[in-house]
Write a structure and sequence with these properties.
This protein is mainly α and 799 residues long. It contains 34 helices and six strands. This is Chlor_Arch_YYY domain-containing protein.
Length: 799
């Protein structure tokens, strides 16, 4: 293990925590511990934005130093307002970050090699390498030489920045960056859950532990259900098998359901890869899945910031109406900046920030009108007295309308912050927005989210029960029948079973919060389940992906889990604390009742056992959800770490080049040689299928390659991609004048001839044994030719 690099990263992040603590204390002054858990993202977010903007002009170590200076200036400005961090709390929350960081270090050290198979590590490692070479942003595309990158690169920019600041080669920094973002997610979840539960009067630590567990470690109930399926009665096992295994069977096993059940219900053959394939036509991940998969995808790494946006929304939610400037600053400065970060890091999270803004503004006690100066409110007749005179329903609609306006403003701020990429940059295009795609069946949906839905339902029932305690029984029964009828109609008439389940929960949660019986855990549950419901209605239309919801579900579902799981973790902590309070005296009461009954010492009717039984039932249900959610991380650890420890294959390294050394050792020296070249010389290598060992020269060096994976067909157009593929093929096989023209067109410096080129072109590959192609490197089974441009321009016809 490269412990020196691990320590360097932890020290760097400790510095960021110290710099961010005053900024967090300013924004979260009304939260317990003054937002100590949010110190690291409070520094990293403005650092990334500053580097992004300065980098449009110049990029390098000096740019990163300027970014740190910007954060330092913000920290000093925050201190000058009079706020002071609770430094002991900052230190303890940094310890929580270290726990999350080291958990992911353990995972990455088990499989550090960056592989092209099954994911997009190749794409993202190439981006990190290209960014390290860049003189300005965006960098030149390593898979489309001569053109700027056409992909949101905020995640890779932060990973590269941390590598450069700590002097870490990116072959290690890639994996340490993954651990950094996981630690960020872990500590923000802990801090947000703890703050919500503390505000309810219960243990901050209890809320933090459960929120961190459910967000960063827990998994869907899919694994538990799949492992339990063979042990179910036949009448139940058949529908459960179809719901839990049907999509995997059709996608991977030719529809053989029995074989799929036998494989994935066997703990010895279980593999975490298949847990995202449950609802047909979608892929739905949870954070631990995404981090173990270890791509630097924005949709995976942005979730720590998504939760940080949730924390900012909570800060707004609890800030008194009189503190108007702070509330406006949190909304348009804080949430607007995070929206801007998402603009170049993960554009799929931009609408999420706007949605969190809408929820916070609409559901907080202070009326949205109070965000405006008093003089404006008087001119617009928005005084508190006028609000009191309006009917409640009308005022709630007004609240929601103003909240939507606030969300729109935050969105505009985000677009402005990210404008060098979103407005003036090179954003991948699609075919617009589609509506009402094929919807999810309820069975597969609950296989994934059954635990989350159960917690939401239990919390709503627990918080709402006192509100209907005095309602006549016939009214309650009538309301229940009306709800059942609406659910049945939604399922039968609209074929929208997910809406039938989530719709009433979201509506009830909204009513609870506005009536003062809910808390911010309910707001997060509304946000999370609302995101899960969203791609049942709307989706991005991507031209080269036949399943309409495929990419949308991947990018949105993990955000839904992150927010919903944070709310569920806080809700479970409150449920357990309340139930424990009621259970202890209740048990004593039951014992007294039993003793009185046995001795016939008096009536027992006044000693109601129902509250005790209700508390016991709540604890039992919560325990079932926790255990069902814990199976996934236990199985993942067993597969990724435990099996390697048992077989003595745990190498304990963070070297991303480990895959090359193990599987392509004859190209290792050549790739290292290319990686050591300075500047931006263009390299050409054979094209090939994506998710295979293709384009290694450009990927492992970050040098611009003429053409790479077929992702470029989506980013640039199929015609542009195929044209370059044809040119590269001609460069290796066509007559000399044609090949020379292509070499000049793409300003090629290095021609890579290795196993892929030999396999693709065989005997048709031209000879490079001529004056224009001196050998620059030769070793293993690779030869790299360096173009002599003078000789190329005067060379005659090929002999």
């Amino acid at each position: 293990m490269e412990w020196a690099l691990v320590v360097a990263y932890l020290l760097a992040l400790a510095v960021f925590a110290a710099l961010g603590a005053p900024i967090a204390a300013l924004c979260f002054r009304h939260l317990p511990r003054r937002g100590a858990a949010f110190a690291i993202p409070a520094a990293l977010a403005p650092f990334a934005i500053a580097v992004f903007w300065i980098g449009q002009l110049t990029f390098g170590l000096h740019t990163l130093a300027l970014g740190v200076a910007v954060v330092l200036a913000g920290s000093v400005a925050a201190l000058r307002t009079g706020v002071a961090p609770e430094w002991r709390a900052v230190a303890s929350m940094y310890g929580v970050f270290v726990v999350g960081f080291l958990v992911m270090v353990v995972f990455r050290a088990a499989s550090p090699g960056l592989t092209p198979v099954g994911g997009e590590q190749f794409l993202h490692f190439g981006l990190v390498n290209a960014l390290e070479r860049a003189n300005s942003l965006p960098p030149e595309d390593m898979w489309f030489a001569g053109e700027p990158l056409k992909y949101y690169y905020g995640t890779q920019l932060q990973v590269t920045g941390l590598s450069m600041l700590t002097g870490t080669p990116v072959r290690y920094g890639f994996n340490l960056g993954i651990a950094t973002f996981y630690g960020l997610l872990f500590v923000v979840a802990y801090g947000l859950g703890g703050a919500i539960v503390h505000r309810r009067g219960y243990s901050h630590r209890l809320g933090g532990v459960f929120a961190a567990f459910f967000v960063a470690l827990a998994g869907p109930t899919t694994t538990t259900i799949r492992l339990a399926t063979p042990h179910l009665p036949d009448a139940i096992a058949e529908p459960v098998s179809r719901a839990a295994f049907g999509f995997v069977a059709s996608r991977f096993n030719g529809g053989d359901l029995a074989r799929t059940v036998a494989e994935l219900s066997n703990p010895g053959e279980w593999y975490w890869w298949y847990t995202r394939y449950v609802v047909p036509g979608t892929i739905q991940e949870v954070p631990l899945y995404s981090f173990v998969k270890a791509d630097l995808h924005g949709h995976a790494f942005a979730n720590g910031y998504v939760l940080f946006a949730g924390a900012l929304a909570f800060a707004y939610y609890v800030t008194p109406a009189a503190d108007r400037r702070l509330r406006a600053g949190i909304l348009f400065g804080g949430l607007g900046s995070i929206a801007g970060l998402f603009g170049f890091m993960n554009t799929w999270s931009l609408p999420t920030v706007a949605g969190l803004t809408v929820l916070a503004v609409a559901l907080a006690d202070p009326h949205p009108d109070t965000l405006l100066p008093a003089s404006w409110r008087e001119r617009l007749s928005l005084s508190a007295t006028a609000a009191d005179d309006r009917p409640r329903l009308l005022d709630e609609l007004r609240r929601l309308t103003l909240a939507v306006v606030a969300g729109g403003v935050v969105l505009l701020v985000g677009v402005a912050v990210a404008s060098p990429f979103l407005v003036f940059g090179h954003v991948p295009t699609n075919d617009g927005i589609g509506f009402f795609p094929p919807r999810s069946s309820l069975g597969p949906f609950l296989v994934i989210y059954g635990g989350l839905v159960a917690v939401f339902g239990l919390y709503v029932a627990t918080r709402g029960r006192p509100a209907i305690a005095d309602v006549p029984g016939r009214w309650v029964a009538g309301g229940a029948l009306a709800l059942l009828a609406a659910v049945a109609a939604t399922i039968l008439a609209l074929d929208f079973a997910v809406l039938a389940v989530l719709g009433p929960l979201i509506f009830a949660g909204w009513i609870l919060v506005r009536s003062g019986r809910g808390d911010f855990a309910v707001v997060l549950l509304i946000a999370g389940t609302g995101l899960l419901l969203s791609f049942e209605v709307v989706h991005a239309r991507l031209p080269l992906i036949p399943q309409p919801r495929w990419n949308t579900s991947l990018k949105v579902a993990v955000q839904g889990w992150t927010l919903g799981a944070a709310g569920a973790g806080a809700a479970i902590a409150v449920l357990l604390a309340r139930s424990a309070e009621r259970l202890a005296p209740g048990v004593q009461s039951l014992r007294s009742t039993a003793a009185d009954s046995a001795s016939n010492d008096g009536p027992t009717a006044d000693r109601d056992p129902v509250p005790t039984l209700r508390a016991a039932g709540t604890i039992a249900l919560v325990a079932m959800v926790v255990l069902a959610s814990a199976v996934f991380p236990a199985m993942v650890f067993s597969v990724e770490v435990g099996s390697k420890l048992d077989d003595s294959r745990y190498d304990s390294s963070l070297d991303g080049f480990a895959y090359v050394e193990a599987f392509h050792p004859q190209e290792y020296d050549a790739l290292r040689w290319l990686d050591e070249r300075s500047g931006h010389p263009t390299v050409v290598e054979a094209p090939g299928d994506s998710y295979r060992w293709t384009s290694p020269a450009a990927t492992y060096s970050g040098l611009p390659g003429v053409i790479g994976w077929d992702h470029q067909a989506e980013y640039r157009s199929a015609e542009a991609y195929e044209r370059r593929v044809a040119h590269v093929d001609e460069l290796y096989t066509a007559e000399w004048d044609v090949a020379a023209a292509h070499l000049a067109r793409y300003n090629v410096t290095y021609v890579y001839v290795g196993p892929n080129e030999i396999e693709r072109y065989g005997e048709d590959m031209r000879s490079f044994d001529r004056e224009a192609f001196p050998v620059a490197f030769e070793g293993g089974n690779v030869t790299i030719y360096e173009i002599d441009r003078d000789a190329l321009s005067v060379s005659g016809q090929e002999s």
